[in-house]
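QUALITY CONTROL LOG
STEP: pairwise intake check
CHECKER ROLE: data steward
CRITERIA: each record must contain a sequence immediately followed by its structure tokens, with no blank fields

ENTRY 1 OF 2
RESULT FIELD BELOW
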Amino acid sequence: MVETQQATDEIVLNVPLRDARVVSRTRKADTAIEELRRFIARHTRTERGKIWIDNKVNEKVWERGKKKVPGKLTVKVVKLQDGTVEVIMP
């Protein structure tokens, strides 16, 4: 999706997912994705609805199952001209 539109800004962020570890066991991966969206929205100053998360990032969060999420995740954030934000693996 990056190839079709011109990127205006690219950064690499370490996203802490510690808050996802304190919820119930069956909701940890779901909460980790929401924490990822919240963190990216805050650091890129964009709405949560305009954030597109790549499938590889989602697979990395769900890699060890629903109950064991990583403590942090390194992602590459690409902000496009139309205001959408893509989250991909570096």
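ENTRY 2 OF 2
RESULT FIELD BELOW
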Amino acid sequence: MTMTLPLLVDTPGADVAFLIGRVLFGAVLAFTGLNHFLDLDAMSGYAEMKGIPAPRLSVAFSGGMLVFGGLGVALGVFPIIAAGALAVFLLVTTPMMHDFWAAPEDQQQQEMTQFLKNVALLGGALVLLVLGGADWAYSLGIGL
């Protein structure tokens, strides 16, 4: 069952704005995921320092979630699963990796900034998750 949202149909230029928004959102997250693989050793060390179990596997798995979710959102491929993967990633990793409340005082501001950035990204992923059941203009139409 698909739904069509009036905002995306009746507002001139909304389809193009939605496309640009989801490409920017998805591409940035996919690029972030790619960096998980390109800098696997350093990111695994950081994850280990944060107490993440199986740090190398966790970094690789989360990188895969970001690449899949980001490309899925950008291209409109399996949008519910893609946005859901991004939401799960952000929901789980944000408090684990950016625990500003437990960081040394000289790192609290940086960790809080990263935490709040991820919370905003989580909000965007949740919006896209809700919109995943709608017909997305300019998508590949796979999984809709």
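INTAKE CHECK: passed for both entries
DESCRIPTIVE NOTE, ENTRY 2: Residues 12-131 form one domain.
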